[in-house]
């Protein structure tokens, strides 16, 4: 559309931007310290947990260890101090297990209590404690038939085995014959499936609950799962049972080692340090407080990487640990192969009969790790992505009421992971979800319940809420500043231009979250606004003469004597562009120590010339080839002025040679190609009615595919490949000269694009309102968490 020339105007560039910026930077709200004494104590507690793993004692496992006889005499306990611990740690209601446990953990208390009673009965001590334990069991046996009660892993098998051992010890249990028969029948049904199954996951499951099978067990098969530390699955109870039947020296050495660590009792899993520290890294990063723990995170990941390289069993034999280690190490730039994940196939993970929360946690970790795919040959990750997505949807949709109580945090994580995949999950948007769904109760359930502050604790949540709300106040101030800037430069008076300041600032605050990076956020948001204005100006708002006039003014920049603005619109746009470029140049000079203004001018000229080319194609009704369109189109998509100047403002030193070099240019082309194609797929109908060129329409015109659906699938495949190549380029350190903080900007923009174009082309989506509000809206209240 051609607009009449409104006459010539002299150029007058305002310096208001710099003064407004200086005023903004002196605002105390830009400082986000966490100086409250209580918060400082919370930080110290969290740091302490990186070095000292917190793990509750297991009455259940301690009882099994207490039943182990001396190798030289079956009439003498090998670990009498465990018996003493049992005598001294019975709860006031007669049970053993976690204190202050949830009301749905009665089955867990029953198995722990019966195991402790049997340990005392076996060695003929603690008659008072035995009787109190039996009273508790008799008063709570109805819970065994309660389907709402949470069943620990293997409960039906293990509790049945404990009942039969009580018979051998002539211990009279307060158990009705009908209840007894019902429990044993359930055990027999499971045992028949055990002997008829041949899946690796099934064999591992039965080996894990060996103490419940005893004489029915194939101990030769079981010992195939023995680890280098002598244990079975790092489980003291399974290892104790194995020693009682096999007299294996490795099993005994493991039990001695655990007691040397914990004294007179044992946890339900040991060692636990790798998984616990990875959980801390993951929680801290997902809650947005990693800037306070850089040193601890780096140390934890370096240690994990060494363990990975050494083939540590504690990583490679556990699906959840291996998947989490793989994801975190890869995302942090460690060069590791996905080969170890091949052992976690459909046969030995996805068909686990236990149906417990730990299975879902492992599936979730495998699903998240499968999305960090860097190489085309990593087909195992593609297959795991497909399988885990299917099983997660199935398992959570069929969850029990107990899953709602103890697995609510897992259910929310699964829902979030399925709805927001890695390539469309913006950091700041995820923070609010993660904080509001964070559960400080660290209770988890294996064969028995346990707690670990490394998995969840209130200090981490306290820090996260404070950090989130402090940044939220800062973001409010920045957005108000940008609103004043838009008004001051009269950008809101351009009737043809979409007013998308909030969206543009959202894309900055959602990904460039660190409070000290306000210059980067302001540059990103301002240039987002300006590229939107310029895009609309070249589409519908300007005549050919005005478009060329604007380009000429930018080409001359500070040497515009004798050059006039052809219209008031050109004057408004040029004034805003000029001052924004100058402001970025000044700020970048103070950070980098060299002048980048010329580079920023070139970035804008590349965009303006590409937009002019598209405008001429449209106005002349010229149909370029697909190759011509894409070569021009990835530039005209207008990410250049948003991303590239911001590279100078995120911290690392960046020379002009690197900023303009081939690696940076390749990153820019990859993300811009993704954006252009995503836009063309989602905006096809709208842009077709506007007569705008589009990759889909050009494919149809040039006859490259039989139907629209085929074209869409082809383009989606290209986006998938470019996105994977972009992620590989961002995470790869070998041979890279672009600082990681700079490369992250390209990946963050890719995430923004995928979120915006998830259903339609973002700027026209009403569904984006809630997402934007979550970043630049209200703080998190205490009642929300």
UniProtKB/TrEMBL annotation:
Terpene synthase metal-binding domain mapped to chain residues: 488-724
Gene Ontology biological process terms, A to Z: gibberellin biosynthetic process
The protein's Enzyme Commission number: 4.2.3.19
CDD domains: Terpene_cyclase_plant_C1
Keywords tagged on the record: Lyase, Magnesium, Metal-binding
InterPro entries, per database record: Terpene_cyclase_plant_C1 (IPR044814), Terpene_synth_N (IPR001906), Terpene_synthase-like (IPR050148), Terpene_synthase_metal-bd (IPR005630)
Molecular function terms from GO: ent-kaurene synthase activity; magnesium ion binding
S-adenosyl-L-methionine found in the keyword field: no
Presence of keyword Metal-binding: yes
Cofactor: Mg(2+)
Catalytic class of the enzyme: lyase
Domain Terpene synthase N-terminal: 218-402
Name listed for the protein in its UniProt record: ent-kaurene synthase
Organism field: Aquilaria sinensis
Taxonomic classification: Eukaryota, Viridiplantae, Streptophyta, Embryophyta, Tracheophyta
């Amino acid at each position: 559309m051609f607009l009449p020339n409104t006459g010539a105007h002299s150029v007058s560039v305002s310096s208001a931007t710099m003064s407004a910026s200086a005023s903004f930077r002196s605002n105390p709200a830009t400082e986000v310290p966490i100086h409250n004494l209580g918060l400082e104590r919370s930080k110290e507690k969290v740091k302490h947990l990186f070095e000292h793993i917190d793990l509750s004692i297991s009455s259940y496992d301690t009882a099994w260890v207490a039943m182990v006889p001396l190798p030289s005499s079956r009439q003498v306990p090998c670990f009498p101090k465990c018996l003493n611990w049992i005598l001294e740690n019975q709860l006031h209601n007669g049970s053993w297990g976690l204190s202050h446990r949830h009301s749905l953990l009665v089955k867990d208390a029953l198995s722990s209590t019966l195991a402790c009673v049997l340990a005392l009965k076996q060695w003929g001590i603690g008659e008072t404690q035995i009787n109190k334990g039996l009273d508790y069991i008799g008063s709570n046996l109805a819970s065994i038939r309660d389907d709402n009660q949470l069943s620990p892993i293997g409960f039906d098998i293990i509790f049945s085995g404990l009942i039969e051992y009580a018979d051998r010890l002539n211990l009279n249990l307060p158990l009705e014959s009908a209840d007894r028969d019902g429990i044993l029948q359930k055990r027999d049904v499971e045992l028949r499936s055990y002997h008829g199954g041949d899946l690796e996951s099934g064999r591992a499951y039965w080996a894990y609950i060996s103490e419940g099978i005893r004489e029915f067990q194939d101990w030769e098969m079981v010992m195939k799962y023995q680890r280098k530390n002598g244990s079975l699955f790092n489980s003291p109870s399974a290892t104790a049972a194995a020693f009682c039947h096999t007299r294996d020296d490795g099993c005994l050495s493991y039990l001695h080692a655990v007691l040397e660590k914990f004294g007179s009792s044992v946890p339900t899993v040991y060692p636990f340090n790798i998984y616990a520290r990875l959980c801390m890294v993951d929680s801290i990063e997902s809650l947005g407080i990693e800037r306070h723990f850089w040193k601890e995170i780096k140390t934890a990941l370096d240690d994990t990487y060494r363990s990975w390289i050494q083939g540590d069993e504690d990583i490679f034999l556990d699906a959840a640990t291996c998947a989490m280690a793989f994801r975190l190490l890869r995302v942090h730039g460690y060069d590791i192969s996905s080969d170890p994940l091949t052992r976690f196939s459909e046969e030995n993970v996805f068909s686990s009969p236990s149906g417990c929360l730990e299975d879902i946690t492992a599936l979730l970790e495998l699903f998240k790790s499968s999305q960090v795919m860097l190489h085309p040959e990593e087909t195992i990750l593609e297959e795991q992505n497909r399988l885990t997505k299917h099983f997660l949807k199935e398992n959570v949709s069929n969850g029990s009421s107990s899953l709602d109580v103890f697995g609510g945090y897992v259910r929310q994580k699964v829902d979030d992971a399925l709805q927001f995949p890695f390539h469309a999950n913006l950091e700041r948007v995820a923070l609010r979800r993660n904080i509001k769904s964070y559960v400080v109760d660290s209770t988890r359930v294996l064969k028995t319940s346990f707690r670990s502050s490394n998995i969840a604790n209130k200090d981490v949540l306290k820090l996260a809420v404070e950090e989130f709300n402090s940044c939220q106040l800062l973001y409010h101030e920045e957005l108000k500043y940008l609103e004043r800037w838009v008004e001051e430069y009269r950008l809101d008076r351009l009737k043809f231009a979409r007013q998308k300041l909030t969206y543009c600032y959202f894309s900055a605050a959602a990904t460039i979250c660190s409070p000290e990076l306000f210059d980067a956020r302001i540059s990103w948001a301002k240039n987002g606004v300006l590229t939107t204005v310029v895009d609309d100006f070249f589409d519908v708002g300007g005549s050919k003469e005005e478009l060329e006039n604007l380009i000429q003014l930018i080409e001359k920049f500070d040497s515009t004597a004798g050059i006039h603005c052809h219209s008031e619109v050109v004057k408004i746009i040029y004034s805003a562009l000029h001052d924004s470029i100058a402001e970025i140049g000044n700020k970048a000079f103070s950070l980098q120590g060299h002048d980048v203004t010329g580079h920023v001018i070139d970035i804008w000229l590349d965009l303006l010339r590409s937009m002019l080319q598209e405008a001429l194609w449209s106005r002349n009704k010229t149909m370029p080839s697909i190759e011509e369109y894409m070569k021009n189109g990835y530039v005209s998509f207008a990410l250049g002025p948003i991303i590239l100047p911001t590279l100078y403002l995120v911290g690392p030193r960046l020379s002009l040679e690197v900023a303009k070099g081939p690696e940076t240019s390749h990153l820019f082309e990859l993300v811009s190609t993704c954006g252009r194609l995503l836009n063309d797929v989602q905006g096809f109908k709208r842009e077709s009615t506007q007569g705008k060129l589009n990759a889909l329409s050009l494919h149809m015109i040039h006859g490259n595919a039989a139907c629209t659906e085929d074209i869409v699938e082809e383009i989606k495949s290209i986006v998938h490949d470019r996105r994977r190549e972009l992620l590989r380029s961002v995470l790869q350190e070998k041979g890279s000269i672009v600082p990681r903080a700079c490369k992250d900007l390209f990946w963050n923009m890719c995430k923004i694009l995928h979120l915006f174009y998830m259903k339609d082309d973002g700027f026209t989506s009403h569904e984006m309102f809630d997402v934007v509000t979550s970043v630049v809206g209200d703080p998190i209240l205490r009642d929300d968490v």
